[in-house]
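2.7 Reproducibility. Because tokenized structures are sensitive to small changes in the input, we list the exact sequence used for MFS transporter, including any N-terminal residues retained from the expression construct. No trimming or masking was applied before prediction.
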Amino acid sequence: MAALLGTIIEWYDYALYGAAAAVVIAPLFFESSAAGGQLAAFATFAVGFVARPLGGVAIGHIGDRFGRRPAMILSVLMMGVATVGIGLLPTEATIGVAAPVLLVFFRLIQGLGAGAELAGAMTVVAEFAPAAKRGLFTSLVLAMPPAGIVLATAAFMGASSVGDEALLGGVGIFVHHRPQRTELCDGRVC
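Resulting structure tokens (single pass, no recycling of outputs):
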């Protein structure tokens, strides 16, 4: 189950980046030209896909040599660190050309980790699945990328079709109704 969820999350992240590349990434990191920004954003998106097979081979070798667990931990850490790095990356206006360079670096690391995660997930599922259902269980891992892509597309469409005020209003309503009463209230309205 963890391998299936990990695969969904991995592809959710990939598809979300792809959907947001032209709309969000290009203006943030490539302010000089709109067309150049879109081209560079999609090229950065492609870097992750080019790195995937290399990550599968390199970290697969680590899995063969040192065990599946260290390889899976490494791949998940690579994905996590790269994703956080992309999220915290300042814009080109703030740090100049270092922003797109770091974005490409983080996408490369993310691609290496993602390639290893999918290959590792399939291997782990194949090793732990009952012999009679090994094919079914392994095929489920490969059925998860479309689920992640559908979730990312739905999330992006939902976020982009709702205005900023409506989105913030929804967060405000959630935060307003979420707090629980403390012991200091003693049943009074606080």
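The chain has a mean pLDDT of 82.
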